[in-house]
Amino acid sequence: MGCTGAAQGQASFTMPHPETWLRVTPDGLLCEPGGFFIDPVRPVERAVITHGHADHARPGHRSVLATPETLAIMRARMGEGAGDSQQEMRHGEVLRQGDVTIRLVPAGHVLGSAQVVMEWRGSRAVVSGDYKRQADATCLPFEPVPCDVFVTEATFALPVFRHPDPAHEVAKLLRSLALFPERTHVVGCYALGKCQRLITLLRAAGWDRPIHLHGAQQPLCRLYEQLGVPLGELRPATVANKAELRGAIVLAPPSAIADRWARRLAEPVTALASGWMRVRQRAKLRGVELPMVISDHADWPDLNRTIDEVAAPEVWVTHGRDDALVHALAGRGIRGRALHLVGLGEDEDEAVASEGAPAA
Amino acid sequence: MSLPAFAELLERLVFTPGRNAKLALLRDWFATQPDPDRGVGLAALTEELVFTTAKPMLIRDLVAARTDPVLLALSHDYVGDLAETVALIWPERMGVNAEPPTLSEVVEALEVTPKAELPALIAGWLDTLDSGGRLALIKLITGGLRVGVSGRLARVALAEWSGKPVEEIEEIWHGVAPPYLPIFRWLEGQAEKPDPRDAPVFRPLMLAHPLEDRDLAALDPAAYRAEWKWDGIRVQLTAGPGGRRIWSRGGEDISGGFPEITEAMDFHGVLDGELLVIRDGLVAPFADLQQRLNRKQVGPKMLRDYPVGVRLYDLLFEGGEDLRPLPFDERRRRLEDWVARHEPARMDLSPLIAFASVAQLSEVRDGARAASIEGLMLKRADSPYLAGRQKGMWWKWKRDPLSIDAVLMYAQRGHGKRSSFYSDYTFGLWRPDGAGGEELVPVGKAYSGYTDEELGWLDRWIRNHTTSRFGPVREVEKALVLEVIFDAAQLSGRHKSGVALRFPRIARIRTDKPASEADRLENLMAYVEAGPAEG
Q1: Among A156, A282, A273, which Cα is nearest to B84's?
Q2: Which member of B89, B130, B417 has the closest CB to residue A160?
Q3: Cβ within 8 Å of A, B 406-435
Q4: Shortest CB distance from A289 goes to which of B15, B81, B130?
Q5: In chain B, what percentage of residues exceed pLDDT 70?
Q6: ipTM over 0.85
Q7: Domains assigned to chain A
Q8: Are the CB atoms for B247 and B236 separated by under 8 Å?
């Protein structure tokens, strides 16, 4: 941790500024002395991948370094495209790549998600990928790592975004089921992460009946179970008859809940589990009847708390509402810099929908 | 904990499109909430209880004192609605021990708190609530609830929940003030039905069935009376020692929007009639009346340019005497006598139309082309005045609709059951584009008239012929002709085409007709009734 102290003493002769060794390129964020990219948007020689969502884990890299879970997710989602050579790295392991040492530290976003901690000549940078601080039974909790530069997302970086306790949102769904026991409750949720987290939340709330899945949700649920996350009894919604779906909970990609696929359901109540559901107009536009504010991203207080905990004098913002976050950081004497990385934060929904199309 | 419960009800109602689901939510509210909060909540939903104590400015000042101005501006810009922004951004204060207020506490406190102390009172409440509760509170106290629950819907929910007929509830409803404790006690079987005495109450209207061909064949002309079906809004005028009210068809109090009528109601009784814009004895098209609807207040210009009157159909009460059990003929005689005696300002009789045979009546109906007439009403001469639609008593016989062949231009998905179907259609007609060619101009929007099979077919066609998307709207190839029927065409300054259709709906899909042969705007203009255009 010595480098944190050194970072305060800026203009040190021994410690390089992170801008000199971590650069934004058209291919993505490049660690120059290590010769690798983090979550690159185009195929590269060497990639370190933070987690399996489609806007971070893209196909076609030659060699890929990630947690075993992220690599398993990539293989399940893109088969051959998951990289010519794959290198697993467990939490706690340290790797030297050129002059750079690399560690992966849990990010609490989805199963396998990691922050990339890099050190070079006494300077430490942490690329957090996407992360959250709320509890999630499907993945390891985020660990703050003090550093000289913290690279953060800003998906929900407006003070209006304060995610409620997810148990409260699940209780709303269960109350609706009690009020409309004849109707299918279809919940739109991303196939990777949100879906499995929602299942564990439902189980924790005492829902032990089978949960029905859209075809697009099934492979990753199976994989999660193989990787040691128990989900209880799951059934395909596609082959179920209407009578079976009365009063059932069905999980489907957000794009499917109000489209043709949903016509098989019994008078569905459409719900959507997303941090965006906190804003009414967003929910209205999607035609959602039961918005559930459940997010796998850090909300405004958690973004700010995390930045304070890692104590970095400088914060780089990859994507999202960098304007608000950079403004807030300036008020606390932290230098914020918007990286404007392209390709991140693109709607995972669309990616899932196209994957799910044949199964649906 | 009633304000959080009310907030959850509000949120469900706002997002629930279906009537049945809304009714279920309301029934649940009546069954689970304590008095007086359930009645206060009900009155707030139906806007019988409206607060304007707190101005939006007060709320803005409260939040501005607690947030960074740049972050507040960015947030407001993102969220759009100020009340919602405040509800979401309000900094939660650690260590708040107070319980959230109940609805009735809010109502009482707003009544007694001096203006200077309001900000502290409201800030204290906001500190105890979560974001949903804060939004409910802010909307409640600034008078902007708007959740789409009509008084009628609420009374139907009360009827379903209690098992009492909705007509009985309607007749006493306006005689009891929020929080309606005597009504709830009666509905729960703990007290007698409340007696509204002299209070002006709404009496459920008698309605008519549409006349089908088979009904027409069986109709005995001697047993029925005919009159015009005027194209305005149906109203009930109630006046007496307890006050004067104009009720809409659904029992909403619309007196405030028509002061010239209430001023003329210096009688004791209950009348049924049609509210119309009438100039020099001539009824103006419905579009003119629309200028006067949904207004809480009207200015002198409105009163001068869109003068309203009531064309009388029926007399329900004369003084305190209930005439509703009497046969129509008898009530009509009493009504004619009453009008002759009172000569009421701004009111006249809807004339009866003499006829000897169905064939003759049919001719009269076909001859009626004034925009102010929707068709004919047929009422059994011996019919008592009963609530709702009574089979065989009253018929409405609308004139045949007009029709155009239009080209489908845009489609949008529906709501609720239709959320997966492209069910709302914008259609257009051809007109010269000013450069020697032709262009389509949208003339209306229809979302009914088709069968389920046709809806499925149209949905597939739209998905396969989409040329671009704007949010939820799809633009399609200009290749499909729809036969659109409508009741009237009226000039309109608000529409690009200059014309507005009354009740457009899809009659047929004309796959046999190429789009180039669809109608032109001038064909539609030929249907426009002579009448004053809007400014």
Answers
A1: A282
A2: B89
A3: 413, 415, 417, 419-420
A4: B15
A5: 98
A6: yes
A7: 2-160+296-346 (3.60.15.10), 166-292 (3.40.50)
A8: yes
